[in-house]
Write a sequence for this structure.
């Protein structure tokens, strides 16, 4: 399987044992070097020829080794310095060092993380076990080839990494179960909003029967978001008291298959929750209002929905693909005395900007409250 990234520094996979990096894409020319995450499609024949020409390790490759490629080329990319092709893990090994991975709570976010790992070829299904009390969620994960169980302790036993993907209100109860089962050598990676690394460490310490702090358990706290489901997530991570640099690297590797990863200080994690964790819902809310207004103006529901969704997608691509600030992009749409200016002035007069910022601050405050609770 071959995947070509949208940006220089991201990866092409060829078969099971050659991984190369996109260096430049201009028109129909693709230059490649080595390894990294994410994907977009490109012409099969062109990449086959170029990979063979520029990577001696691909000399034995056949055209059929590159599969599932469409005819859509990405836009021009900046040059990056090429390096040598790095070897992949052999067929009998997991691609990354987090095997076995125990997923505790098989909800939507856990699904996004696991699908990202599997789709990117960064883990095999047999390296993952997912625990959930819902038969429907277990069935969904089983459909990905992942072993599933109802008992969280069974999943955690012997795991190298335990992904804590349950609702925050259930976390304390789950930690009592999985802490003793996984043991002190496991890395605990939490995606629970509003629950600090210290909170997790303390509950693991208590569950293991340690008489006094500090806890010996290694914890990395994270805040992902739902666009991971389409490989466009944003994740912030921070270390607990005993987490090592290798633990942070491992956590980043797990998320990097379907998201960009940022390391922050833990005191900023509640702000991250408010901005990127909850952030997708704010954009959906704006799209809801665009659709409702369109219907009020006489458009059909289908017409308003299509106009709003496509506008949101196009605006997002412009925003992420441009060096202009959001304010500058907005100014480029806003002609003096025009319709956009009239709309923006109305929003400002009604305090929309201030109201939004107040909402974002309230989200952060709620995250803080959840941690205290």
């Amino acid at each position: 399987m071959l995947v070509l990234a949208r940006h220089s520094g991201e990866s092409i996979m060829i078969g099971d044992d050659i991984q190369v990096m996109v260096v430049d894409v201009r028109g129909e020319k693709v230059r490649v070097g080595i390894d990294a995450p994410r994907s977009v499609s490109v012409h099969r024949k062109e990449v086959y020829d170029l990979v063979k020409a520029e990577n001696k390790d691909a000399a034995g490759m056949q055209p059929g080794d590159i599969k599932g490629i469409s005819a859509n080329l990405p836009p021009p990319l900046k040059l990056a310095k090429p390096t040598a092709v790095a070897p992949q893990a052999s067929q009998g090994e997991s691609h990354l060092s987090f095997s076995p991975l125990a997923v505790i709570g098989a909800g939507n976010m856990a699904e996004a993380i696991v699908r990202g790992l599997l789709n990117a070829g960064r883990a095999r299904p047999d390296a993952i076990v997912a625990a959930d009390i819902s038969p429907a969620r277990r069935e969904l994960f089983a459909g990905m080839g992942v072993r599933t169980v109802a008992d969280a302790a069974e999943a955690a036993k012997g795991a190298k990494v335990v992904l804590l993907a349950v609702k925050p209100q259930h976390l304390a109860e789950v930690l009592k179960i999985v802490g003793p089962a996984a043991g002190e050598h496991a890395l605990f990676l939490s995606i629970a909003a509003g629950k600090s690394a210290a909170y997790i460490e303390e509950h693991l310490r208590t569950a293991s029967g340690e008489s006094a702090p500090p806890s010996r358990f290694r914890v990395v706290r994270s805040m992902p978001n739902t666009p991971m489901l389409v490989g466009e997530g944003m994740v912030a991570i921070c270390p607990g008291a005993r987490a090592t640099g290798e633990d942070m690297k491992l956590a980043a590797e797990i998320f990097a298959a379907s998201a960009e990863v940022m390391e922050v200080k833990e005191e900023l994690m509640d702000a991250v929750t408010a901005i990127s964790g909850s952030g997708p819902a704010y954009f959906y809310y704006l799209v809801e209002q665009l659709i409702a207004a369109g219907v009020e103006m006489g458009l059909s529901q289908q017409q308003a929905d299509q106009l709003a969704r496509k506008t949101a997608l196009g605006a997002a691509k412009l925003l992420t693909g441009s060096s202009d600030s959001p304010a500058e992009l907005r100014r480029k749409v806003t002609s003096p005395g025009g319709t956009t200016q009239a709309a923006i002035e109305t929003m400002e007069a009604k305090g929309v900007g201030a109201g939004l910022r107040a909402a974002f601050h309230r989200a952060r405050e709620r995250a803080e409250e959840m941690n205290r609770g």
User: Anything to note?
Assistant: Confidence is low (pLDDT under 50) at residues 1-59, 61-94. The two ends are 47 Å apart (CA to CA). Residues 101-269 form a domain with the Rossmann fold fold (CATH 3.40.50.720). DSSP finds 13 helices and twelve strands in the chain.
